[in-house]
Amino acid sequence: MKEELKIFFKIFTTTKDAIEKFMNMLNPVIQNASDDHERLYYHHIYEEEEQRLSRLVELIPLISKFEQEKDEKDFTPTNNEFNRLLQELNLEKFGLHNFVEHLDLALFRFTDTERSTLLNELRVVSYRDYQQVKELLNEINTRFDHDYVDPHAHHDEHHDHLARPVSPTVVTQSKRKKGFTVGSLL
Fold first, then answer.
1. What is the pTM assigned to this prediction?
2. Which pLDDT tens digit goes with each residue over 39-81?
3. Which of 41, 4, 15 is nearest to 125 (CA)?
4. Hey, which of 51, 57, 85, 103 would disulfide with 123, CB 3.0 to 4.6 Å?
């Protein structure tokens, strides 16, 4: 269990940093939104990530505490604090899932090289971390409860909607309005 905790600690510390970068990117967009829809849209995403950030501020020290435990007997389902840790880790698995989706949504808006490069980098790391957290939690849950079935496994069961296509589809739009021509009327 200690090895898994080291991995969780690294993942969620990295995630915390990524969320802070993302929120810093969103803040000026919210402040300078061109309309209420844009402001509310990004404010909603910002608030969800702000809530995750506050949960991670509590989760990271909890992981660290268990990582430093000397006695493996504390890693049992009868330990209420350990149960809390497992619940928080399961919750943050979905937080990572949502974070990847938020990054994907932001990529539609932030098309400049600097921000899209950062968002893509954050997305690659976050998606990889999400897959790893999912795998580790499945292993841990089966270790403690042999009949455990993740009630949310259906998200990625038949199709991982967060996975990027193998060959990315590039959509280009002409900046010039298309007019009618004789050929287009035939």
1. 0.77
2. 999 999 999 999 999 999 999 999 998 888 766 666 666 678 8
3. 15
4. 103
Please give the structure tokens belonging to residue 58. 């509590």
Residue 108: which of 42, 178, 58 has the closest Cα? 42
Q: Cβ distance 107 to 120 under 8 Å?
A: yes
Cα–Cα distance measured from residue 4 to residue 175, given in angstroms and rounded to the nearest whole number:
50
